[in-house]
Amino acid sequence: MYRKLFCLLLAVVLLGGEVRADEGMWMVQHLEKVYPQLRQRGVKLPLHEIYNEQDGGVAAAVVTLDGGMGTGSMISEEGLMITNHHVAYSDICDLSTVQRNYLEEGFWARSRAEEIPIRGKSVHFLRKVVDVTAEADSIVRDIQSRGKWGMMSMRKVVSSIEKKYARTTDCEVACVPMWHGKKTYLYYYDVYRDVRLVAAPPRDIAAFGGDFDNWTWPQHKGDFTIYRIYATPEGRPAKYSAENVPLRPRRVLTVSTRGVSDGDYAMVIGYPGRTQRYSSSYAIAEKQNVTNPIVVKNRHERMDILRHHMERDPEVRVKYADAFFSLSNFADYAKWENICLHRFGVADKRRAEEREMQMWVEADADRKAKYGDVLSMLQRSYAMRREAQTNLNYFRETWLGPSVPILVANRVNSHILKMRRTRRTELLPEDRETRSLYRFSSRLEGGYDATTELDLMKRLTRNFTAHVPRKMWGKGFEEMYDAAGGDVERMMEQAFKASFCSSAERYKAFLSEKRSIDELLADPLVKLAASVKTINFTGAVMASDKRSAGCDLHVCERRYSDMLYDYRASQGVVQYPNANSTMRLSYGRVKDLHPYDGVWMSFRSTVEGYLEKWNPAQYERTMSDRMRELIAAKEWGRWGEKGQLYVNFITDNDITGGNSGSPVLNARGELIGLAFDGNRESMAGGVWFHPELSRTVCVDIRFVMWVLEKYAGADDLIAEMRLK
């Protein structure tokens, strides 16, 4: 009875049903496996019109930005590409100054000449996918036959295939293993690098609500930005050039003006980043009990420091806006992920499945020989490594990355290690590698404030010494700590003021002369960086794994993933691989939300929410007089519906990071919105999808059009689009 009930519930979740959402981020090249479920949900497009290798289907209009940082879609024959404002946040911050603050004021190019080229930007169009599993398996067997299989071996397999096929095409290729190598695919992309900013709303429209509303529902955000992609006159990728012309894409999405209703079919096509849905209960418990609490504590402390300095100085706000946004996003995610892991008993659910899985393994001699010891090995390994993993997480969160001067000092120390490997004793200004090190001074310039960084160093180093045992500090750190009488803040302030790694001017001056290794190591921050060694922390974790399981824990988790896959396959479950920044499709419905007993939330929010939440005393909820006047005028034009303008809506699609900016399509493949967030009840989605409470938060495309027309007066952009 218990087994039958479990299998029935799993089939409903993964294969579809009228009551629950359909889990899955499905590979577009294999949609035939789930197309019957799409039809059942209401899609009107034939399968080949969603994705095909000839003209690409509607998927040909979908792109990934900067190799997986977000998703966008083509909305005009003249190269307009739309994505989320928060995906474009770094670009907008980089272009902003106190005098010309595009983050606060918005940006609207009034002509093609005013569009701003974005240095380093890339947009990938998927052209085709080839199954290279047989070739990858052959290379794996060859490496294993020579007894050389190790941690980096799969990377060598991938590299070998990429190098081979890159010589045969003008496209860029990416070889991607799925299910830890059960299947391997080669993705072909056209990559365009002449990308120019066209339109970005101000913060009080695009990010209204800020931290208060992050991962919540209802929200009221016009989270969009528009770029234009340029190409050669022949339509091929090229670096920026005044001779380039707007790209004429293979496919352009039609913008729907009809809006959405409760229960409507909704389809998301995009590039979800990373999930770990084949993780063991032990891995989930470690995330819940070890990793996330350390992340939340330390990142919120960093945010407190940044917020204090951003509030005291508008220039500091501009410099650290992007860093604060990233910190806030991930810290809140980790916080709510833990709440969901606990509330929904995710580790317990996986343990229940593991008990069923172990019974299945024990019932067959071959399966027992292959998988019989997996769960016991994982149990021992995770128990043995807890202390080492705790130390590693504190090292990452309090030492390795929180402050720029320590980051710079670590870069210098890496150069010292390289000098020693090559038996060089002096750093010469004219050397190519020294010039590369010299250019690292940029980290101490534009987006850098010394007072802020010193406060970060003091607070986080105090956390480091409070939670990481002294034996892990290294000799140099211990000497400086003792010399300061155990006063961490005094130690770091003295080191900061004396170091060439805390000032761009001192850094450049120091590296402009010949320096010995001893001179480099005499710098107090470099001395600290050299003392606190990454290998001591990662090595302790690996050593504990091998003591308990006799192998790297990653090997055990891969075996577990194989076992889970095979078990589910034996139950007839159609499976999708973990998200890995390849194109995927998720299908679902526009749907309201009942997050707690007695609480009901509508599937859409209105522009009235801007006025209800507006609070001049809270930076995140401030709003310009112009926006308030436009809302008060209630002139919605063709973008309103029965006297109301809708801002955001929710669906039960399955998405994750990387899907930001993904087009949300109706049953006819028309653009109805952009995915930009999840709700708090979906925050365990990295390892487990909630079939009833997970929601995707989307900006209504009609609200985007209203902002373009009424707020920005960008009628010329709307004229480029196909409206229906």
Would you write up a description of this structure?
The chain has about 725 residues and is of the alpha+beta class. The chain contains 29 helices and 21 strands. The strands form three sheets. Strands 2, 3, 4, 5, 6, 7, 8, 9, 10, 11 and 12 form an eleven-stranded antiparallel beta sheet that branches. It has an eight-stranded antiparallel beta sheet with strand order 1-16-13-19-20-21-18-17. Helix 14 runs antiparallel to helix 25 (about 555-570) and helix 19 crosses helix 23. The longest helix is centred in the middle third of the chain and has 32 residues, at about 280-310. The protein is globular, with a radius of gyration of 27 Å. The model is unreliable at about 1-20 (pLDDT under 50).
The portion of residues assigned to helices is: 40-55%
Number of helices in the DSSP assignment: 29
Low-confidence parts, pLDDT < 50 over ≥5 residues? 1-19
Global shape: globular
The whole-angstrom Rg is: 27 Å
Amino- and carboxy-terminal Cα gap: 52 Å
Largest sheet: 11 strands, antiparallel
Please, what is the average pLDDT?
93
Please report the total strand number as a whole number. Answer: 21
Strand content: 5-15%
* Class inferred from helices and paired strands: alpha+beta
SSE map:
Blueprint: H1 2-15, E1 26-27, H2 35-41, H3 47-50, E2 62-65, E3 70-74, E4 80-83, H4 89-95, H5 102-105, E5 107-108, E6 116-117, E7 123-131, H6 133-145, H7 153-166, E8 172-178, E9 183-192, E10 194-200, H8 203-206, H9 210-213, E11 225-231, E12 245-246, E13 265-270, H10 281-312, H11 314-343, H12 346-362, H13 365-371, H14 374-384, H15 386-400, H16 404-421, E14 426-427, H17 432-439, H18 450-467, H19 475-483, H20 488-498, H21 504-511, E15 515-516, H22 517-522, H23 524-531, H24 534-549, H25 553-570, E16 584-589, E17 604-606, H26 608-613, H27 625-633, E18 646-651, E19 663-665, E20 671-678, E21 696-700, H28 701-711, H29 715-720
Antiparallel strand pairs: 1-16, 2-3, 2-7, 3-4, 4-11, 5-10, 6-10, 7-9, 8-9, 10-11, 11-12, 13-16, 13-19, 14-15, 17-18, 18-21, 19-20, 20-21
Helix pairs in contact: 6-7, 10-11, 10-12, 10-15, 10-18, 14-24, 14-25, 15-18, 15-24, 16-23, 18-20, 19-23
